[in-house]
Amino acid sequence: MKRRFSPASIVTAVVLAFLYLPIGMVVVNAFNADENLIGWGGFTLDWITGAFGDERVRQDFWTSCVIALLSTAVAVTLSLAAVMAVSRLPKRAGAVLQTLTYARLMIPEVVIAAGILVVIDRLGLTTGTWSVVAGHIVFCSAYATLVLQSRFATLTGTYDEAAADLGAPPYRVFLRVLWPMMMPAVVIASLLSFTFSFDDVVSTVFLAGPETETLPVLILSLSRHGTSPEINAIAVAFMFVSLVLMCLVGLASFWPSKQARRATSEEEAS
User: Fold this and answer.
1) 73 exposed, middle or buried (CB, 10 Å; 0-12, 13-18, 19+)?
2) Which of 11, 82, 89, 197 could form a Cys-Cys staple with 68, CB 3.0–4.6 A?
3) Are 112 and 139 in contact (CB under 8 A)?
4) Do residues 173 and 158 lie in contact, with contact meaning Cβ atoms separated by under 8 Å?
C-alpha cells in the first residue's frame, strides 16, 4: 500500500525549504570551487582561508566583537539594576518601567537609531564605535530585562528577606544570595545580548559613521555588487559564531533546572 503525503506534511516541507534552503546554499557555495557560482565546481577551502586572511574581515570581526562585548556589559548591568529596582517600586511605577521595556522592543529599530542620530547631531558629537554601542544598548537591554525579570520573579521576597532577617547587610544579601541564583539568567541574557548586537545591521548603519565598520555591514556592502564565494565564506564564518553562541545559550538554559534537580535530590536525601 502506497503511503501518501498529507497536505500538512507538504506545506511543512515547503515552509522548511523556504526557511533553510537559502542558508544551505550559502554553506554549499562557501566551499564551491566555481568562482561564478553557476554550478558545482568541486570542493575547496580557498574562499574560507581567503576570508580569514583578509585584513578588512579580521578588523571588522574584531570591531563587531568589541561593540557586542561593550553593549552586553552595559545592557545586562542596567537591566539587572532595573529589575531589582522595579521589585522595590510601587506597582504603578513598576508598570511604567515594564511598559517602557516593551516599548523598546515594539518601536522599529530604524526609528530608535534615527532618534539617537538626531540627538548626536544636535549635541555636535561625532558618530563611531561609542554611538553604535549606545544604539545596541537600547534593544539589548530590553531583551536582557525580560530574561532577568522572569528569573528574579521567582526569588523576590523569599531568600533575600530570609538573609536580611538573619542580619546580612544588603550588599552581602546581593553577593551571597541573589547573585549566585541570578547567575544562570545573567549568562543567558549576556549571550542573547551579544548575539543580537553582533549581527545587528540597522542601528550600525545609522550610527557607525565613516570610520567604523562591522562584519554584518561589510557583508551588506559586498552583497550590493552581487553574490560571490567570498561573501558566502564570510557569511559561513559569521554563522559559525552565531551557532556557537546559540549552543551556549541552550546549555545555559539547562543550568537552572539542573541546579533545581540537584537541590531536590539533596533535600530528599536529607
Assistant:
1) middle
2) 197
3) yes
4) no
Give dist(CA 91, CA 16) in Å, integer: 44
pTM beyond 0.90: no
Q: Name the pLDDT band for 67 (thresholds 50, 70, 90).
A: very high
Which set of grid coordinates corresponds to residue 115? 532618534
Distances (CA, A) of 188 to 64, 76, 106, 149: 19, 10, 21, 12
At 10 the pLDDT is 87
Amino acid at 14: V
Cβ 197 vs Cβ 242: under 8 Å? no
pLDDT digits 0-9 by tens, 217-234: 988 888 887 778 888 888
Helices (H), ranges, 107-214: 109-122, 129-152, 159-165, 170-173, 179-198, 202-207
**Strand ranges for the chain from DSSP E:** none
Element (H, E) at 224: none
pLDDT in tens, 152-201: 887 766 677 777 777 777 778 778 878 888 888 898 899 889 989 988 99
Of 130, 142, 245, 248, nearest to 194 (Cα)?
245
Q: Are 138 and 200 in contact (CB under 8 A)?
A: no
Alpha carbon distance 12, 133 (integer Å): 39
Backbone φ and ψ of 133, nearest 5°? -60, -45
Residue 94 to residue 100: CA distance in whole angstroms: 10
CA distance 98 to 252: 25
Q: Which residue has the cell 540597522?
A: 202
